[in-house]
């Protein structure tokens, strides 16, 4: 779920776009994206993700994710397909913040030589029990570089948790082979559709959770920090816009049971369209991303200067 890295030491100034008790979310002029202010300490983050997250914060996450295996084959399969398309082969892949190993399982089934790193011993041990090659620790500080460089590096919902996203991208880039591919997915927050959905159900900004999410990205802001590291952005896509359910009156922010029902429906949508016309599914999500809609911002970049 998270990597390590020193807190950003630069001056952070910008317009306050949201506030919850004890925290502001600022549009940081220095960083180029929204983030929480003040930032938590490294000790607080270490405790959360090494000790608390899977034990107390998300105790049912691993069991629930196992029920989503067929959907993961589609969701992660699309990302692996794109990397394969640009590389020309299934090579060596590293999943940073691999959790219980969902992405790695799909990668292994598709013929990739798959590696992962995960700070939570609970999640990492589960992944290891599946026969996956996973290190326990924070990236990049605890990463054992014996595996060498990688054709493909994947980070799914990681950058929103780290105190210095740019440092994490820099460290990942150093592990990429020439022309290697990096895919990053983060929540697509403060999007026009999300803001409209919040008004529709008269809800507070439920996505602002500063104890967990330090950073808040858009498609454009994520691409900007990738380009700043001389990575060439080659694809922009997303996944199902969950906000549509809110606009249809299904308020999953107020009722977890509704949230589970909506999740089942979004899985069914992906599974049906993937079976009928996989290319149409890809086009659908790319077009949504083109107008900055969709629940996730999923950007793929290739090593090398633009």
TrEMBL record:
Which PANTHER family does the UniProt record give? BLL5978 PROTEIN (PTHR43861:SF5), TRANS-ACONITATE 2-METHYLTRANSFERASE-RELATED (PTHR43861)
Source lineage: Bacteria, Pseudomonadati, Pseudomonadota, Alphaproteobacteria, Kordiimonadales
A GO molecular function term, named singly, is: methyltransferase activity
Q: Which InterPro entries match?
A: SAM-dependent_MTases_sf
Pfam family for this entry, one: Methyltransf_23
Which processes are annotated in GO (biological process)?
Answer: methylation
Q: What is this protein called?
A: Type 12 methyltransferase
**Provenance organism:** Kordiimonas sediminis
Does the keyword DNA damage belong to this entry? Answer: no
